[in-house]
Amino acid sequence: MAAVYKSLSKPSKKDAPTNGEPASKPTTKNRQRVLILSSRGITYRHRHLLNDLYALLPHSRKDAKLDTKTKLHQLNELADLYNCNNVLFFEARKGKDLYIWMSKAPNGPTVKCHLQNRTSSKIPYHYLHKPHPSLSSTTNNNTNQILGIVHTTSELHFPGNCLRGSRPILSFDATFTTAPHLLLIRELLTHIFGVPKGARKTKPFVDHIMGFTIADGKIWIRCFEIRETAISKSEVRSGAQPSEDDTPKEIRAGDTKISLVEIGPRFILTPIVILESSFGGPVIYENKEFVSPNQIRSDLRKSKAGRYAGRSEQQIERKAKKGDLGLRTGMERPLGELEDRVVFA
Questions:
Q1: How confident is the model at residue 255 (pLDDT cuts 50, 70, 90)?
Q2: pTM exceeds 0.85
Q3: Exposure of 325 by Cβ count < 10 A (0-12 exposed, 13-18 middle, 19+ buried)?
Q4: Distance from C-alpha of 338 to C-alpha of 341, rounded to nearest angstrom
Q5: 3-state secondary structure of 128
Q6: How far apart are CA 315 and CA 123, in angstroms?
Q7: Contacts of 111 by beta carbon, 8 Å cutoff, 6+ apart
Q8: Residue in 183, 181, 182, 188 with CA at minimum distance from that of residue 284
């Protein structure tokens, strides 16, 4: 039935203008397909996040795990095999860290990001889109706090929901226009998360928003439901409600009120490098401020070892100081020649 509907919906040649009117230009279709797959060694949280993104992107195709982590150029062949021009690859390291590769196959570019979530992700949505005095202090307190925890949709228990196969509205922060590499990342995110109209498995509904915000040098990604509720009579009695242009607007019973309810998942992307081609080529951007989780864990272990070494040195110095003062408390008494343990040894 779908093929019959498409054939009947196409304009026929008889409908072409014959009275000299210029023919309308053919509209170009946005043909975007995303290949989603992961490497070996991902945890259950990473797998649930992959399934959540697959459910949110009806124009995506999920494939089995990739066996190699070094020959990533094979992903271009897989994308060509499944007729996909975008690749979303999840790379797991040491069962803790998760890196995400976003590529435009087969010519590039490619963006490698570190995927994580932190305790400051509970900042309200309007704080992320509008500068707030408490935002800088909240994020700076957790700068050195790296948690490899990803909050999936099933764990957050948000009341929001959206129709499976619906198209989202992409909302980007104004900070994306301040740097060339951010413009490139925004375009790549638009191709991956922007569901084209009329794509396979899509439904003609727009009922959720995906927000992309830059704060603390990271990309914060949230998903919200567009909820329309009828205004009750109690809200009408409360009086007029100011609109966006600060002019009073009369509220009537039965009018719809639009609000945003978070759905999930929520995660944060830290850009690391941008490659010119697809999974290869020269580096056109590198984040000098990024510190790998391995280095952070190594520094923590060294700091703990340094504290233990300092305590050991203090004990040795304390014993030496007591010996110089002639204090024998807490120290072993030297054995004499006539001690029983020496004579009857």
A1: confident
A2: no
A3: exposed
A4: 8
A5: helix
A6: 46
A7: 101, 102, 103, 184, 185, 188, 271, 273, 274, 275
A8: 181
